[in-house]
């Protein structure tokens, strides 16, 4: 099982959109996909068709952490629930996940809990994607230590690129501290205008490529599709498959799947199918 943490240094860089679209695209290729929503805003949960009011508090991200910290059965297999996309299951968030720092402050080895919990479902998934808040904390440390790979989306503006560089640095430091191998899988430029890119945008893309080389993917072009897809609780791949945003994520997902050896299945133009 591959575990991929998607992390950014600031909000608004399409972190959750990247999780949703990659999850759908990986499932399309035949992979069994899990998504862990570690953000109290619950956007990955909602964006994959699970309403805030439908989240079972006893099976949420916070709840499984709390049980693990108390040495109780985690119910991990039960906690991953079906999403709006066939082949994608979600460990749904609710607002209490934002309180994990306080809840786990006295727990020895709190940073290792997610890695241990995901080991319980290693036979159930080919890949698990972890969505995080942009604010570092216990959940972030857990995600870095649980992951085999790191993806960092970034808009091509100064504050986002600075945040991306800091995110990679922080993730590597956390992983090194715990003796955990963590590989940067991709830096994904996001929300790039279809037309009218600025000189600064192109310069920042060049800067990223000079720093990370082939790990920098093609840019994801901005369209109006993501907000309406989110409102429906489905990926852009299902809502507006021919859009530039969807086509860019499909291409990136194919490249990343090949890098980590995810299974390949024939593409069905009607996919992602909803449950």
Question: Which features would summarize this protein structure in a list?
Answer:
275 residues, alpha/beta, 7-stranded mixed sheet, 12 helices
Walkthrough of the structure:
This protein is of the alpha/beta class and 275 residues long. The chain has helices spanning 15-28, 43-47, 61-69, 76-79, 100-103, 113-119, 138-146, 158-177, 199-212, 225-232, 236-239, 244-260, and strands at 2-6, 33-38, 80-82, 88-91, 127-132, 149-155, 183-190. It is built from twelve helices and seven strands. It has a seven-stranded mixed β-sheet with strand order 3-4-2-5-1-6-7, with helices on both faces. Helix 1 crosses helix 12 and helix 6 (113-119) packs across helix 7 (138-146). The longest helix has 20 residues, at 158-177. The chain is globular, with a radius of gyration of 17 Å. The two termini are 23 Å apart.
Binned strand content: 5-15%
* Main pleated-sheet profile: 7 strands, mixed
Query: Which of globular, elongated, flat, extended, rod-shaped describes the shape?
Result: globular
Low-confidence stretches: none
Overall residue-averaged pLDDT value? 93
The tally of beta strands, per DSSP, is 7
H/E order of the elements?
EHEHHHEEHHEHEHEHHHH
Put simply, the count of helices is 12
**In which order are the strands of the major sheet placed?**
3-4-2-5-1-6-7
What percent of residues adopt helix (DSSP H or I)?
Answer: 40-55%
Helical/strand content category: alpha/beta
Brief rundown of the structure:
The protein is an alpha/beta fold. The protein has helices at 15-28, 43-47, 61-69, 76-79, 100-103, 113-119, 138-146, 158-177, 199-212, 225-232, 236-239, 244-260; strands at residues 2-6, 33-38, 80-82, 88-91, 127-132, 149-155, 183-190.
């Amino acid at each position: 099982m591959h575990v991929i943490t998607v992390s950014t240094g600031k909000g608004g860089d399409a972190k959750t959109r990247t999780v949703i679209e990659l999850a759908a695209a990986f499932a399309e290729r035949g992979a069994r996909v899990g998504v862990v929503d570690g953000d109290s805003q619950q956007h990955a949960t909602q964006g994959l068709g699970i309403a805030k009011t439908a989240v079972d508090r006893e099976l949420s991200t916070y709840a499984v952490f709390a049980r693990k910290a108390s040495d109780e059965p985690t119910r991990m297999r039960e906690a991953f629930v079906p999403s709006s996309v066939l082949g994608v299951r979600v460990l749904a968030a609710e607002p209490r996940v934002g309180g994990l720092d306080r809840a786990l402050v006295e727990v020895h080895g709190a940073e290792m809990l997610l890695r241990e919990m995901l080991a319980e479902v290693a036979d159930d998934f080919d890949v698990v994607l972890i969505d995080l808040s942009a604010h570092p904390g216990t959940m972030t440390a857990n995600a870095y230590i649980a992951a085999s790979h790191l993806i960092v989306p970034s808009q091509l503006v100064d504050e986002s690129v600075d945040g991306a560089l800091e995110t990679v640095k922080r993730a590597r430091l956390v992983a090194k501290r715990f003796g955990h191998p963590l590989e940067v899988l991709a830096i994904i430029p996001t929300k790039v205008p279809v037309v009218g890119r600025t000189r600064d945008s192109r310069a920042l893309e060049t800067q990223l490529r000079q720093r990370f080389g082939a790990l920098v993917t093609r840019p994801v072009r901005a369209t109006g599709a993501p907000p309406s897809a989110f409102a429906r609780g489905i990926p852009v791949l299902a809502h507006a498959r021919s859009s530039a945003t969807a086509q860019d994520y499909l291409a990136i997902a194919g490249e990343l799947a090949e890098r980590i050896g995810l299974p390949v299945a024939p593409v069905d133009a009607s996919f992602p199918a909803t449950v």
